[in-house]
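fwd from M.: "can u put these together and see what the complex looks like"

so here's what she sent:
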Amino acid sequence: MAGSAVARPLTGRAGRGTGRLALALEPWVYLSPALLLLGLVMFVPLIVGFTYAFQDIRLLNPLAGGWVGLKNFETLMGDKNFRVALVNTVWWTVGSVALQFLFGLGLAMLLNRAFWGKRLVQAVVFLPWAVPTFLSGLTFAWLLNPVIGPVPHWLFAMGILEEPYNILGNPDLAMWGPIAANVWFGVPFFAITLLAALQAIPNEMYESAAIDGATAWQSFIQVTLPYLAPMIAITVLLRTIWIANFADLIIVMTNGGPANATQILPSYIFTTAYRKLDFGYASAIAMALLLLLFLYAVLLHQMRKLMRSTT
Amino acid sequence: MRKLTMAATIALLASAGGASAQTLSLVEVITSPPRTEQLRAMVDQFEAANPGVTVEITSLPWGQAFERLATMVQGGQTPDVVEMPDRWLSLYANAGQLVDLTPYLAEWDGTAELTDATKAFGSVINGQTHMIPYGFYLRAMFWNKKLFAEAGLDRAPQTLQEFYDYSAKIAELDGKYGYCLRGGPGATNGYIMMMLNFLGENKYFNEDGTSTLDDPKAIEGLQFIVDMYQNGLVPRDSVNWGFNEIVAGFYSGTCAMLDQDPDALIAIKERMPAEDFAVAPMPLGPAGKSFPTIGYAGWSIFQDSEHKDVAFDLIAHLSSREMNLEWSKFVGVIPIHVGAEQDPFFTGPNFEGWFVEINDDRWEPTSMPTYLEEFGYFADVVSIQGGQEALLGQRTAEDVATEWADYLTPAQQKWLAAQ
């Protein structure tokens, strides 16, 4: 078809114009089913959710309804729970991503060498990723329970806790429970992706570094890290956005408690929408979260650009 | 396989029975596979006694039951008989969708044997009887005899002052606590009971719809729980405890007292020798009264049913003394017949507390304002968060109680206006 469009005799400016237009439009025609589908499943819900944020949609109040402008966002500004959840979200995300990354990198380095039974170890290491999060959340919640689980007694024996109690009940420590479960759950992801990147580093680089007299640490800093950098940037970006949106473990383990100590924005959105049945306000919180993640993505994108231009 | 043969039998019966065959549909909403099997066995007996009648049971998982039943009813697939939990009764009864059972009960010979509570709780809406409850979930105090003995105590506390003092004594033992406090999911009942106990009245709202929870006496009740937590009489983790944790805390001997419904007895009996614990009535408040929360569920008939008479025969069968006794033992509820406590299963110290509460008027079982649409959010979120903040000392009991009252008052006033 493209060929016939080009081969059509040129009959003056107008004809040439429509021909060019048709030519330019043609790929979009082919793409249209996919675009339509994408638009339907991605943008329509997004836009509907966006409009909710400017409406009063409380299912329990039949008098509610209609456009309220920025009222939901004004409430948001004065909402103490929102501020708490915002700080907790940052804490939860940074803590989880940093630990997952460090352990994942370590694990990938360990697996990136030949040893007996490597395949089996690899398979086992990747297992947590396959366990449903609800199950791992419940398991960790019980592990941390001093009546049934061993962890509080270990922590007590090591002198970390002054008595064997459940850290999920202590507002200062509670966040560590879901973070621990999340690290256990998320380490395999980093290990898998970083291992793949490690295996792509040509061995000659290490050999020449060794010839130049580099120590193990130096070759890690000078060879391994620069090669891994693009992969690290993309995985950290992805994981940050996933984890900031990831409320399953928190809902299962603490339900945001005690007294909001583990409430993050997604769990706050969930309770507002499905317990309070206030969809307007829940959408406003969701918009705030979306904006924050968008800013973060832009920032990281700029950083990557900067990094690329300096190297 | 069994299901398959059953389905085949039903199909066969339906085709063979011809015009005289009647098919009743029954929806159960609080389900588990063994529970469905128990119900099926009871219904089988009914079918055997009533040739030509078949009963189809539909089991809805509790988590989705509310939406599923509502969808069925709206879509015209209304069942004949339904298992009706207390918190949905007002919704369906006020919408005129349930049959008034009064004329049926007047003729049924089992009516005289029902306890007063059974008749009363089945008839809470507009003075009509919309269900026959099949049993009651009532709070009573489990106490660990061994731990009590270790602390030099030999009986359950009878007043809240004793409850506090005994808890303090037990908490002096190493790693032991007086009370299994529930501060996590489901904590609402505990706070409300204590607030009513100090208030001395079974009253959530004044005439004008304002909540009583910010009454200074009610605030004292909340403060009582906060004091127990902050003085170390309960485990510090309990701020997050839900049903599983408090029950585990009790049978593991971590905390010596637990307020629970009879269904917790099933889990506790499996793990604790029967002679190691007993169940006492809830301690009495300063006014000499106590208000343990009560919950119940029962059988109702839908107005749309085309076989109302047979449907009543079915619920009469399920509510008969023999069937109800079997059912309440299985499910873990207080049965509905006068004198049911004479059954060997219910005699003895493991059940005593509940029957005292039912039969002695110093105890007034209280039913929470579940008829308010806003109550779900109050129970699931507002009361839990506020309670935890009070326990952890982030807010005062007064501040929290005021927030609760401010939340419930408009809800009640809205409800009053709609009546």
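replying to her w this: The radius of gyration of chain A is 26 Å.
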